[in-house]
Structures are given as C-alpha cells and as structure tokens.
From TrEMBL:
Gene3D superfamilies noted in UniProt: Dipeptide-binding Protein, Domain 3, Periplasmic binding protein-like II
Subcellular location: Periplasm
SUPFAM superfamilies in the record: Periplasmic binding protein-like II
Keywords: Signal
Signal sequence annotation: 1-26
Protein name according to UniProt: Extracellular solute-binding protein
C-alpha cells in the first residue's frame, strides 16, 4: 500500500469516526454499530444495496463437503460439526444479537437485538431484544436465553472465551433488555462485538431428549437441535449427508439484513472423503452447484470439461477489498525445536515463493508480508511516531534490528538467490547451535538431527509443502509431510498435536478482542484456540491489550503496527501468499444480482435458483447430453 493511499484512508477513517460521534451520543440507543465511522446506510437501512429485494424463493442448493461430521454442537472442542454449523457466530441454525455486514468492514446491523447502547466510559453495554424474535418451536427468544448463552459459550467455546474475556456477567434489566458488565473500562470494541453472540435456546438444551435423557451443551450430539435462524435441519445421514430446509415463517425474514437473501428452499450437503472425487462430482453436476476454487492449477487448466464448453458451468472471478488473511507455515513453539527465534528465522529463508508462484501458481499469488495485509494496519518501513513510542517501552525485550531495519522476506528473483538465502539459513542455524554434519543439520552439542513434520489433510497442502521440504533438505533439515483425514486433523490441531501446520488467520479493519485468541499466552494453553504457533510473549500480550484499549483510531493503528512488527520480527510463522479475489465456478441455474459486495467478493446468500434453468440442466445431464 502506498503512503498516499494509507494517509487517505487514515484521514477518511478519522473523518467518519468524527461524524459518528457527532450524530450519536454515548448511552443512546444505536440500531447499526460501526467501529469505523458510520455505516453507509445510516438509520434508514432498508436492505443491502446489492440485493434483489424481490428475489424468488425456491429450489435446492447442492454442496459437496470434504471429510465427515459427528456432531451438531459446534461450540465445543470435541467433535467435528456438520456443515452449516460454525464455531463462532450462528451459522445456518442460530441467529446472533446482531449480524455482521456483508459489504462493510466492522459494521453490524440488528437481528435478535433491535438496538444497543453503552456509557461513555465503555464499562458496559445494553442490548434490547426485538419482541418478534422467536425459536422454531414458536417460543420467544428471551433475555434468559441471551444470559444463558453468554455463560455457556464463555465457559465452553475457546473463541468466545477469549473474545469476551473482559465481560464479567450479563443481567436482565427488563423483559427485553440485557446488560453486560465489563471488568475494565475503555474497551471501545467490546460493546459492539457483543452483537456477535450466538443465542441458544435455554429451554431446549436444559430439557430432555426423546429417550428422557437430559441434554448436555458441553458434549457432542447428533440430536437435531432447536434453532432460530432461516434454516433448520430436516434430515441427515451420520457423517455423509445433511439437509437443511428454509423456515417458511422465519421471524426475521423482513429485516433489512435478510431481504433478498437466504432464497434457497433447501440446502443439501453431501460429504466426500477424497478431493479428486469431489472434483468429479462437481463436473458431472447434481451434487455440487457452486465450487469455490483454491487451486491455481485447477483454475488455470482443469476448467475445460464438457459443461464448461457448453456454457452450463460458469467460471468467474470476484475481487475483494477486505483484509487478506495470514496464510503460513505455523511453527509450534510448544515443541522445543522451534523455541529459538534464530531457528525460526532460519526456516523462513528456504521458502522460495517466487519460483512456486511462477511454476505452480501461474503467477496468481502475491507474497504475504504482514499479519494485517491489505489494510492501513500493516506495518512498513521503520517504526516512527506513536508506533515508535509504544515500542520504545519494550526495546530491551525486542530484536534490535526491529528498530533499524525494514522487515523483508527473501525474494528469489535470480539464479543466485537460492544459494544466497540457503547460506543465510545455514548461518542462522549455526548461531543457534546447529551445524551440518554428513549432510544432516544436527545439534552441535548433542548430535540430535533437526527433524520435523508438517501436518496436512488435503492435496493443496502437499502442493505447498513439497517445494519447501525440498529446499530444507538441501541444508540438511529433515522435514516431512504427513496427510491425515480431516476429522483427525481437526482434533490434532485443536489439541496442538503437531510440529507445523499450514494455517490461516483472518483479520478485520478494526482488530480488538479476538487478538487474544490469536496471540496471547493464555490462549497458547487453551485447546481449540487459534494461537497455532503457541506464542507466549509478554510484549505481545501487552500490545494486544494496547490494541483492545486503544483510545481512538490513530492509537489503534499505531498499536497494531507495533504488534504486526513484533510478530514479524519474532518469526513465529513462515508467511506464504494471498489472492485478493474469490474464484467461483457454478452451474448456470442461478439468478445473481448484477452487483456483488466487493468487501467479501460474493454473497451467495443473495443468489436464487432459476427454476427453469434448474429443470433444463437436470433434464440435459440426466439424459447424458
């Protein structure tokens, strides 16, 4: 990002924030929440500007899912949740207090709650429930449901636990209002993100099943749960299929965030274990209608099957403007092998992105160089101004080069680059006490070989890992790749049972409480957290708190720059790459609004089934034409 663009965005954010503060005072009811100024829709939000408000309902969306499932409870560490259920948010089954916007960053609109408010010191937040909100059994969603859900999720969900760490309790103010109390003042993000709370039905979870056995929200279950959202589970085959049906009398269907969306009558998910089999299922039609594509090779060379040539499958690229995730080799510091920063730095140099991008990825990818890629929050150059002031407090605990050198990843841009960077890796290993003997990298004192395993579960992991492993072996590092089934992979990742994984960490334009789940020392020991690298660093903990309790946007940007820089210079991961696009291929059975939200690229919930197209495709491909 250029300096001019960064300055422009910073000034714009400050102007919007100022505008927001002028129009809404503290402790007034707010219908739309934003952490960066005001929503573009203001208080007169009718529906998203990209949807077709008269989109027809009907038809079936067919999807293929890799792996299997064994639970309808996504909020605990145990089990593999079924498609449509998510560990954070409500998924297809549950509504949240408010719903995150699809076309703006750090904005939420009313759902179960029709408004919220908070005092000027950010010491609490009060949410007011929409009196129309109800469960699928017709019972109203109550303040008691909200309080119980908060308690259950904070106690059992790794993500909600870190997200709401500063929320001490929730109390009923009236039959429509619930107040959340905070342990510290000044957490500017916390009042807004309480809207991300998934609300669960207390009366159902505290009841008994068909056999008279009391339900347990802390355990996996394959009993179909009661929900509140636009869809409900109507049937399933354990581990192989789950079918969701649109709720015809869904209470929130006329809310602005729902108009023109959630148009499919049925969503059918079929599980397939093998990626190649899943690809074949898509090309033949019937089981998989929309394929999000992640493989550069497949996107470039595989989309030439008969349905593509006939125009029955459409291949389209949707550009995105949201922050790019950090995709990387996550080095698990819970393993002593990766405890030394010099070792972690050494492991960065053998990753030859440029050759991989040219020979494997057809030039589609861009190297990731920040944990906050694509935003004004990404650090660059040398620390200065307020960022430097923040970092000066920790100078004696930080790598000295952080203050004197711009962080740069190796660039394999010439035939000589490989020799240069592999030598730098060997030199760093030597400083850390490792030497090459007999072609193997070994500990100079004990003779122990430097050996680790990259854990993966699909073919893409193999594509990414293989060239890296080959380069590591050139300097005597014995790295291997082990592919396991998805369920086993999820369980091992949740319990940090790996040396290295290929992981992703997404960010928003307004980072805050979720940073604890990514980087904090407490999260490093909590199964199911997203602190994949096992970071335990007091400076990182302090900077995370500085972000959470930032006094304004400028302070937040400076603190995030500082955190980004400290994470980069500690080499907790080996950064890989990103693409600022969404690749979708889909069978030509949909009506799609001409405009799609650039923030997320494409909102498939705004699509609908063209029943005539669907029938024509079914007839054509059943008949073998």
């Amino acid at each position: 990002m250029t300096v001019g663009r960064t300055l422009h965005k910073s000034l714009l954010a400050a102007a919007l924030l100022a505008a927001g503060l002028q129009t809404t005072r503290a402790d007034e009811w707010r219908t739309t929440s934003s952490l960066i100024g005001q929503s573009k829709y203001g208080d007169n939000f009718q529906h998203y500007d990209y949807v077709n408000p008269n989109a027809p309902k009907g038809g079936t969306l067919n999807s293929v899912v890799l792996g299997t499932f064994d639970s309808f409870n996504p909020y605990i560490v145990q089990g593999s949740p079924a498609a449509g259920l998510v560990g954070f948010g409500g998924g297809l089954l549950y509504d949240t207090l408010m719903e995150q916007a699809t076309d703006e960053g750090s904005v939420s609109h009313p759902l179960i709650a029709d408004a919220y408010k908070y005092p000027a010191d950010y010491s609490s937040a009060t949410y007011r429930l929409d009196p129309r909100a109800k469960w699928h059994d017709g019972q109203p969603i109550t303040v008691d449901d909200v309080i119980w859900s908060f308690q259950v999720l904070k106690a059992n969900s790794p993500q909600y636990s870190r997200y709401f760490e500063n929320v001490t309790d929730a109390v009923a103010i009236s039959d429509r209002e619930v107040e959340f109390h905070f342990s510290q003042k000044g957490n500017r993000e916390l009042p807004k993100i309480l809207g991300d709370l998934a609300v669960l039905p207390k009366h159902w979870w505290e009841g008994t099943d068909a056999n008279g056995k009391k339900r347990d929200v802390t355990k996996p279950t394959l009993e179909i749960p009661l929900g509140s959202a636009a869809y409900k589970i109507v049937s399933f085959k354990p581990g192989s299929e789950i079918i969701w049906q649109r709720v015809p009398d869904y209470w929130a269907a006329k809310l602005p965030v729902k108009i023109g969306r959630e148009n499919f009558d049925t969503q059918r998910f079929t599980y397939i274990l093998d990626d190649n089999a899943a690809w074949q299922a898509f090309t033949k039609g019937g089981l998989d209608d929309v394929k999000p594509e992640n493989s550069s090779k497949r996107w470039k060379t595989f989309y030439n099957f008969p349905a593509i040539k006939a125009g029955d499958v459409i291949k389209k690229e949707f550009k995105t403007t949201s922050p790019e995730p950090m995709q990387a080799f996550m080095l698990n510091q819970r393993r002593p092998l990766f405890a030394d920063r010099l070792v972690r730095a050494a492991l960065t140099y053998p990753f030859d992105f440029e050759t991989m991008n040219r020979t494997l990825f057809y030039g589609f990818n861009t190297r990731t160089s920040s944990y906050f890629q694509g935003t004004e929050l990404a650090s660059s150059g040398l620390p200065q101004g307020k960022e430097l002031e923040i970092l000066e407090k920790y100078r004696d605990k930080l790598p000295p080069e952080l203050f004197t050198q711009e962080f740069k990843l190796p660039v394999y841009d010439s035939p000589q680059a490989e020799r240069k960077y592999l030598k730098q890796a060997v030199d760093l290993f030597a400083k850390a006490g490792w030497v090459i003997k007999g072609g193997k990298m070994v500990n100079a004192k004990t003779g122990e070989p430097f050996k680790f395993e990259i854990l993966g579960w699909n073919d893409t992991d193999q594509v990414i890992a293989s060239p890296y492993i080959a380069n590591l072996r050139k300097i005597g590092v014995d790295a291997t790749l082990r592919l396991i089934d998805q369920t086993q992979y999820i369980n091992r990742v949740n319990n940090f049972d790996y040396d290295v994984i290929i992981g992703q960490l997404g960010q928003s334009e307004s980072p805050g409480n979720e940073q604890r789940d990514f980087w904090s020392s407490k999260a490093a020991d909590r199964p199911g957290s997203r602190n994949y690298a096992g970071i335990k660093n007091p400076v990182v903990d302090a900077l995370v708190d500085r972000i959470i309790f930032a006094t304004d946007r400028d302070d937040l940007v400076a603190a995030t720059h500082a955190l980004d820089r400290v994470l980069l210079w500690n080499y907790y991961v080996v950064p890989q790459y990103y693409r600022a696009v969404v690749w979708l291929a889909y069978w030509n059975k949909f009506g799609i609004p001409a405009k799609q939200p650039s923030y997320i690229g494409a909102d498939q919930n705004s699509w609908w089934i063209d029943l005539d197209k669907e029938k024509a495709l079914a007839a054509k491909y059943r008949s073998g034409n």
